[in-house]
Design goal:
With 144 residues, the chain is mainly alpha-helical. The protein has one domain (28-142). The chain is built from seven helices and no strands. The N and C termini lie far apart (60 Å).
């Protein structure tokens, strides 16, 4: 039993050297949602607090992201979020896709599906009250 525990600890220690790729590809900051739409300061703050970590290239990785296997889980969420919609590439999207993305974002916020519950566990600033949700839903509604 002790030997198995020692092997598991050794594997966990070695796994710390295998890190996910968190590099940011080249992109034009002028194509960013905030740069293009110039929302109110309140909406910008909400977008950055509740959306941008997973849906842009402005991810602020938390301290626990330095621990494997947590970093793989976090990076998978970020990659998936960027695949669903990347605000850093807003201007590169065709108009139809932008409207669809805005509609989806508003619906997901209204339904309480975004931001993800597990994200809000460690990001209190992303816990949106009814007024904040309405601000974001109105903002996205105006983009449709």
């Amino acid at each position: 039993m002790k030997r198995l525990l020692l092997i598991l600890l050794l594997l966990l220690g070695l796994a710390q050297f295998i890190r996910p790729d968190t590099s940011v590809p080249a992109h034009d900051p002028a194509q960013d949602l905030i740069a293009m739409t110039k929302p109110t300061p309140a909406v910008e703050q909400l977008l950055r607090a509740a959306c941008y970590d997973c849906h842009s290239y402005e991810t602020q990785y938390p301290w626990y992201d330095r621990i494997t296997p947590v970093n793989w889980w976090v990076n998978d969420h970020v990659d998936h979020g960027r695949e669903e919609g990347n605000f850093s590439r807003w201007g590169e999207l065709p108009e139809k896709k932008r409207r669809h993305f805005a509609e989806e974002a508003g619906e997901l916020i209204a339904e309480g599906e975004m931001p993800l519950t597990e994200y809000t566990w460690t990001h209190a600033e992303a816990r949106l009250d009814a007024g904040q949700k309405k601000l974001l839903m109105d903002f996205f509604g105006g983009l449709r």
